Automatic annotation (TrEMBL):
It comes from Actinocorallia herbida. This is glutamate--cysteine ligase. It catalyses: L-cysteine + L-glutamate + ATP = gamma-L-glutamyl-L-cysteine + ADP + phosphate + H(+). Its EC number is 6.3.2.2. GO terms for biological process: glutathione biosynthetic process. Keywords: ATP-binding, Ligase, Nucleotide-binding.
Length: 449
């Protein structure tokens, strides 16, 4: 990038592809666990995650992702990806699809195939929002050079208070990827998605268990994210702008310290205590300056609930059970791909600032839709949000943009809106008698198949 800031090149990643058709994709994180103990499996070994990736590479058409002799993922010829997460979970990334029904059909078939391959190795692919049976001290790290650099950063910045290690190794989610067609469309979708993220989180809370025991909260996953690094997670500065002030947005991001840089494609340490902006202006001290690969590396160490790139990646929801994941892309598609729904959804949270969103999300982690907002239970606004999404999706059906069968994907969140009972409450009720001492039953009930 040279020795001076080049805002145009930095901002290019936030500009998308003008006029792009509004496609939908998902990224589904799955735990790779022993089917009897529910404990996550290590990378190496006869029943390790590397063995599963190697089996996938033999059975699917495409290309294995290999770095320094270690298999880290697989790219199928049609664009689907299986990538190794830091803690040896796997992330399935779908090819973008025209419409929810086509997406769900393809992803369900792929997940069933992946689950069958895992079964051949006596492994299970676990749905949900975290790995509930991993005991204290259990770590299964992938062979990626950035992992020790990230762990060192969290320890140096936050000491024993840091939950960065847990975010890297214990939690799971289902993320939705949506398009924007121009700058104005980007800004409206980005702002609305940030504003309603606490409501979406409340509908999907699903992680009341940690290290084999019930906690006092409904989303331990959100609690983990809150302890990582407030500068990099949750709601980023200036994310509520419509229009988005891209200069201020970039200033906030480049003001962060990079956790690692890339040298010859490999993660490497960075001189500590300096911002990315400093390195843009002054270099790393060895005659080199940040590259586009370094900029991408910095962006990869931001984990907001709404991740803006050339698409919008929507990340707030806890991972649901294996049958209910289509509710997440269906909800977001109904909310953001219909202009009237987008405006009405944003109006539900009008005049809500970043600090209020942070506080509300923390309350949602504890109480889900029973959290209080403005003196009333959040459940009422959650119900309004589901109605708005369904109406938006129905209008897309009328316009020929969606198949009518997509409306059924919203049934899990319609049930939460009607009863006020989120998935975490059902899991907490079942835990003592059914799952606390029987991980095999939990895995059987929650594995992809």
């Amino acid at each position: 990038m040279g020795g001076r800031r080049r805002e145009g090149r930095l901002a290019g990643v936030f500009r998308g592809a003008r006029g792009r058709v509004e496609l939908v994709g998902v990224e589904i994180e799955v735990g790779v666990v022993d089917p009897r103990t529910g404990v996550s499996r290590p990378y190496a070994g006869e029943r390790g995650v590397a063995a599963l990736l190697e089996l996938i590479a033999r059975r699917w058409p495409g290309t294995a992702v290999v770095e320094e002799g270690s298999i880290l993922g697989f790219r199928r010829d049609d664009g689907a990806e299986i990538m190794l997460e830091s803690g040896c979970a796997l992330e399935y990334g779908s090819p973008p699809a025209v419409g929810l029904v086509a997406l769900v059909r393809r992803v369900r078939a792929d997940l069933a195939d992946l689950a069958a391959l895992a079964h051949e190795l006596d492994l299970a692919l676990l749905s949900g929002a975290l790995l509930p049976y991993d005991p204290s001290g259990h770590r299964t790290w992938a062979p990626k050079p950035q992992i020790p650099l990230m762990l060192d950063f969290f320890r140096a910045e936050f000491g024993t208070r840091s939950t960065g290690w847990a975010a890297m190794s214990r939690i799971l989610s289902v993320q939705t990827t949506l398009d924007y067609t121009d700058t104005a469309d980007r800004d409206a979708k980005h702002r609305t998605a940030n504003l309603v993220s606490p409501l979406v989180a409340a509908l999907f809370v699903n992680s009341p268990v940690w290290e084999g025991a019930l906690t006092e909260r409904l989303s331990h996953r959100l609690h983990v994210w809150a302890g990582v690094d407030a500068r990099r997670t949750g709601y980023l500065p200036h994310a509520l702008g419509d229009p988005l002030d891209l200069d201020k947005f970039l200033d906030a991001i480049t003001g962060l310290a990079p956790i690692f840089r890339k040298i010859a494609g490999k993660a490497a340490p960075v001189p500590p205590g300096r911002s990315f902006r400093y390195f843009l202006d002054h270099g790393y001290g060895d005659g080199s300056y940040p590259t586009e690969e370094d900029w991408t590396a910095l962006l990869s160490t931001l984990w907001p609930f709404v991740r803006l790139r050339r698409t919008l990646e929507l990340r707030v929801a806890d991972g649901p059970g294996h049958a209910d994941w289509p509710a997440i892309p269906a909800l977001w598609t109904g909310l953001l791909y219909d202009e009237a729904s987008r405006a009405e959804a944003a109006d539900l949270m009008r005049d809500t600032g970043r600090a209020e969103l942070d506080a509300l999300t923390a309350a949602v982690a504890e109480a889900g839709p029973a959290a209080s907002f403005g003196g009333t239970p959040l459940r009422t606004r959650c119900a309004d949000l589901v109605r708005i999404a369904k109406e938006g999706l129905a209008r897309q059906v009328v316009q020929g943009l969606e198949d009518e069968r997509a409306l059924a994907f919203l049934e899990p969140v319609e049930a939460v809106a009607a009863t006020g009972v989120p998935p975490a409450a059902r899991l907490a009720e079942a835990w003592p008698a059914r799952y606390a001492h029987d991980p095999a039953t939990y895995v059987a009930d929650h594995r992809y198949r």
